[in-house]
Amino acid sequence: MTFQINKIQKILLGTIILLLIPFIAMQFTTEVNWSVLDFVVAGVLLVGTGLGIDFVLRKLKTSKYRVAIIIAIIIAFLLFWAELAVGIFGSPIAGN
Question: What is the value of pTM for the model shown?
Fold first, then answer.
């Protein structure tokens, strides 16, 4: 009997592994201080990005469009993450 992991399970597993990094760091230092809401928001962003990339890979057949849209998704993720982290644009979502 073999156990197969589908794409959504891989995305969720990858998200959990990435979120373990700040969780473990919080156990050893006070430099990392995330709340439950921080973990939820990060999880939603990571899962959303993963699902968006999976959607593009499944629906688009032309590789240049795939690459362009995936790059746009990753840039949007990084900009949103940076805005939430340090408020680079000074928008209300960053708490400024």
Answer: 0.85
Asked if 52 and 63 count as a contact pair (C-beta separation under 8 A), the reply is no
- Residue 96 three-state SS: coil
Tens of pLDDT, residue by residue over 5-41, are: 788 999 999 999 999 999 999 999 999 899 999 999 9
Alpha-carbon distances, residue 5 vs 23, 30, 50, 58 (angstroms): 25, 36, 15, 17
DSSP states of 24-92: HHHHH-SS----HHHHHHHHHHHHHHHHHHHHHHHH---HHHHHHHHHHHHHHHHHHHHHHHH-SS--G
